[in-house]
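User: Small ask, check this?
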Amino acid sequence: MNIAVGTTILFASLIILMCLRVPISFSLGISALFTAIYLDIPFLNLFQKMSTGITSFTFMCVPFFIIMAQIMTDGGISDRLTRFCNVLVGRMRGGTAIVNCVVSMFFGGISGSSIADVSSIGAFLIPAMVKEGYDADYSVAVTCTSSVEGVIIPPSQNMIFYIVAASSGLSISTMFMCGYIPGVLLTLALSICSYVIAVKKKYPISEKRSWRENIQIVREAILGLVTILIVAVGITAGVFTATEAGAIAAVYALIITTFFYKTMNFKKFVSCLLKSLKTLSTIMAIIATSSAFSYVLSYLKVPIRVATALTAVSDNPIVVMLMMVLMMVALGCFMDMGILIILLTPILYPVAMSIGYNPYHFGLIMVLTLGLGLLTPPVGTSLWAGCAIANIPIEKSLKGFLPFYFTYLAVLAIIIFVPAVSLFLPKVLGYI
């Protein structure tokens, strides 16, 4: 009886607080506190879990990646990456749409955030596409769906949330490596979808530039691309840990934007640090209180009960995984992605382990599945941002999203049914 009432208190208080628009970090902490009071759990246990959550070695890389992303964004590297991608694929039919997909892949290696991608790159690419003659719903659909590449292409905040929430000693470097091939696969699939639609609707070809202009664009972009290579190659080759790669990349980005691009000065750097501090404090608060929430979940044996319920329906691993995917897709329509990773990982992670899934493979499935929620109403934050930039209602944009939804789901199905897509790289390099 106590367990049932405690579970009700935990989730009911969380839902009520979220409906009242209480910040998620406070909602998680308060609901855990209410439940602890009812169950007579010592407050010291909760505070210890909160402290452990933000002092873990895994979390140490987060501040460096946040600072690196902010310096690169404010230093104008995203603009140079866009022009670089335009040189690579801009002369194809629907070239600007394909540029949108490719630059999102590179920007994913900077921000690790879909909403950051839509807000920054989409702010100038969506109007540019509409001006060139692309339909507004198509422009928004390309921008928003390609922005989700950032949730699986390292360094991804959401992957870090998964590693921390799993509390199983998983390696963030290994998790990052699992995202590279699926990230490229998703980019390729969305680019093909964009091209097919562009050919069918006879969308325009980008204007031609001279060889001299193209060479200059490539030269400027290469310095910025090295920042991404420090993270990607450094971690993959085992030269750096994720924390070291983030720190070195942040310093490199500062040097490049200050002395070579000359787009960074002391005032702008201070502004970057203040923006990073605001982001970091929010993430720290969420991780701390989610650790307390996860502790209460475990105390109530919620993960075991969910595992028992799912495996009672079927003992087939694929069927159980599909049920979990459907659950995540449904919840993703109504709740933010980061929040769901923190809430669902302690519950679904033990289920996935009990049916034989690799923890890194499951992490990628979870992050990519919940990424779909960024594109679906009513909550879809990336969807809202894209429609706001294009100044069109959401219902008008959904028709343009349909081909991209099917493409996204096809890539997700490949990743679920072919584990080698996500596990090949870390296995070849001896990480797992």
User: Anything to note?
Assistant: The chain has a mean pLDDT of 84.
